[in-house]
Amino acid sequence: MAEAWYQDCVVYQIYPRSFQDSNGDGIGDIPGIIQRLDYLQTLLIDAIWLSPIFLSPMADFGYDVSNYCAIDPVFGTMEDVENLIAEAHTRNIRVVFDLVLNHTSKEHPWFIESKQSRDTEKSDFYIWSDTIPNNWYAAFGGRAWTYDSLRKQYYLHSFLPDQPDLNWRNPKAVDAIFSQLKFWLDKGVDGFRLDVINCIIKDDAFRNNPKILGSRPRPYDMQRHIFDRNRPESHQKLKMMRKLIDGYDQRMLVGEIMVELPGEPELAASYLGRFQDELHLCFDFSLAYTRFSALKWKRVAKRWYEAVGKHRVPTWVLNNHDLPRLISRLRGNENKARLAAMFLLTQRGAIFLYYGEELGIPNSKVSRSAMYDPLGKRYWPFHPGRDPERGPMIWSTGEGNGFTTGESWLPFAKAANRYSVENQELEDDSMLHFYRKLLGLRNKDSVLRLGLCSFIDTTCIHILAYCRELDEDQRLILLNMSGKIQTFGIPLLQDKDIRCEKLFSTHMVQEPEMDSLHAITMQPYQGSIYRLV
Ligand code: TEU
Ligand code: CA
């Protein structure tokens, strides 16, 4: 059997509305993505993941699907999608689609039928109740139960009232959901990112969530989300889904596990299945939620590796369409962002990048009145909305920045020209070339992709140090996460007869920095990768 491609893949997430517009309406689309596949190929990524492109009223920009087997006209046609899959495959790029299976749009024919009456085929496709049965709140505001005047009952929605939750306890609904997956598997899609997949099964007795004392703008944050997710039966459903997908060759499931801050890596890992019989990959966001610090990042990464274990595959991610971009979380500090990228791309397992991350594009500024995101609209300024991290890709300088010939649906990041692919191609030390070098190094070095990782202590708390090891081949990675010059030693290694050969560094010119492992000097925010011989 061929090695599974996902175990050491780099996946590039595209937010289709913001990647490349091909028809001047200011909104990115599928033909636009096809035009940019050559660029993506230069990044040596293994796959692209597209945020939802299916028919949708766009109450939550595609995370509210009204037909899983139709393409929303704003993005293109079924033919465009077939072309995309074919064109990506000729470039050895796999295609991962985003499936939102916890809920549909309220305009999905299933829901329209379900609310019609209590005894049709689809009556129990959703979760209905005569009264509001518990204290659950919705992530996007208000109670999780909304009254439907046609059916004269309340339905459950974990997000917007426009997004009714499917009833995964109904085998007929599960069958119907699985046939949507089959449709895309038969079309040659290589995998799925499964939205909030740990939320699909709710407590069968609808018990109240425990309250959290205090006051917060979002009632949702005033309860612990115990009973509206993570029920034992969700593992059963994922095992069924895994069986289905294993009937096809080399397909992958990556799950978004919605957890409480600051992250629950063990819970996330549980969805990989004890016998690797659930998800192939799942996201743990602890790292993205953790302040940039050598000690903290080390603790978080160690815990994630331990939760996943040696035989399953960890996933690493710093950016996505729900989080302020890392460079903005770092207040624009590019040196820190480079070090973070070096950390990310020297971990074992699957790496997820978010479009524009490779350019260091920061968040766009979006005012409350121009905000589309329902979360931002409702909870501004407590939640500034997610539009800022969804700003358009910056391809070139000048009006529209190569993204559109029309008016972009969201504003570009401030001083957009300086982040453009066009400009960064020309500068040897640009963020783009930095990412390319790291991606190139990872691509040709199986130790960096697959080798086990062990963190090692140095005499300085600002240094994040770890070894990667595969078949006795070793790499040493040293990251100075402080803004000061640091001189330190590595007690564990210094007595051994080891030579370090530098493969790559953020500061290639500052040589020599290492006479022995007793005395290493690193520049502020320097990161280096060595081969140990
Ligand atoms: O996200 C679930 C989720 O955790 C976030 O929406 C979170 O509530 C929010 O970012 C608060 O900071 C997934 C999708 O990634 C998101 O885009 C969708 O809006 C959501 O599910 C509903 O489908
Ligand atoms: Ca368009």
UniProtKB/TrEMBL annotation:
Question: Example GO biological process term?
Answer: oligosaccharide catabolic process
Give the UniProt family note: Belongs to the glycosyl hydrolase 13 family.
InterPro entries according to UniProt: GH, GH13_cat_dom, Glyco_hydro_b, O16G_dom_2
Q: Does the keyword Ribonucleoprotein apply?
A: no
GO molecular function annotations of the record: alpha-amylase activity
What this protein is called in its record is: Alpha amylase catalytic region
Keywords per UniProt:
Glycosidase, Hydrolase
- Recorded superkingdom: Bacteria
- Describe the location of the Glycosyl hydrolase family 13 catalytic domain by residue ranges: 13-390
